[in-house]
Amino acid sequence: MRIGLLADLHANREAMEACLEALQQAGCTRHVFLGDLVGYGADPGWVVDVVRAQMEAGAVAVLGNHDEAACSPPDAAGNLRMNADARAAIDWTRKHLDPGQLDFLRALPLQVTEADRLYVHANAWAPGQWSYVASRLAASQSLAATPQRLTFCGHVHDPALYYTQPGDAAHFDPHPDVAIPLLPARRWLAIPGACGQPRDGNPAAACAWLDTETDRLTFLRIPYDHERAAARVREAGLPDALAQRLLTGA
C-alpha cells in the first residue's frame, strides 16, 4: 500500500489540491493528515470538509496546534502563545467554520499508532505541548518516547528525515522524488514538510508518500498556483505577511 503524508495544510486549497493529485498519480490509495489543517490560509472550511471525507474513506488525521486554537476560546493559552498574525488568522478562521467543522477539529486525536508507525503533529514525548522537532536532540527525544519504528510528524515546516545511531539521531535533508529505503535496523522520524505554507525558501508545496511493501519513503515538492493562494489570503483580509510567505516560501 502507498500512503500519502500531508502536514501543515493551513487552509491552503490550491496547495492541497495539487498535493492530492500528485499523490494519486504516485499510486497512493490512503492518506494521513499530520495536523494543522487550518490557520493562515483562506479556505479552512473546504480543507476540513475534504479531510473529513477522506477519513470516512479510511484516512487518518491528527490534531495540530492551529486546529486546537481554532476550536478553543480566544483567550485560551494556545491562542495567547501565538504571534499576532497567527492569532489574527485563528480569529478569522473561527468565524469561518461552522459548528460541525469545529466539532470535527475538536475530536481529532493528538496521535495515532498503526502497525509500526506513529502519526503525530508535533512530537512523541509531549504531543499536546507543541514543542518542535527542529534538531537532532529533539528527534532523539521523540524517537525515545515511542516504541514505533517509524514516526511521521509535522509542525516544522521544512522537510527532514532523522534516524537512530549511537548518540543523537542523524539528520539529512531529503531530495524530492528519491525513494529512501527505511532500513529495518534503524528507527526513523520523517517530517514531510508543509503542504500549505513552506518555509524553506521554496514556495512549492511539500508532501511525501510511504510504500509499506517496499519500506521506502519518497518526498515530493509540488509546484502549484501559490500566487492565487496568496491573492486569496489578501482577498480574505488576512494579514499580508501570510500572503507574502506563500509567494517566497520563507
UniProtKB/TrEMBL annotation:
Record's CDD domains?
A: MPP_superfamily
Q: Domain of life here?
A: Bacteria
Give a single Pfam family match: Metallophos_2
Domain Calcineurin-like phosphoesterase span(s) in chain numbering: 1-214
Tell me its family.
Answer: Belongs to the metallophosphoesterase superfamily. YfcE family.
| Name the record gives this protein | Metallophosphoesterase
Q: Which organism is it from?
A: Pseudoxanthomonas gei
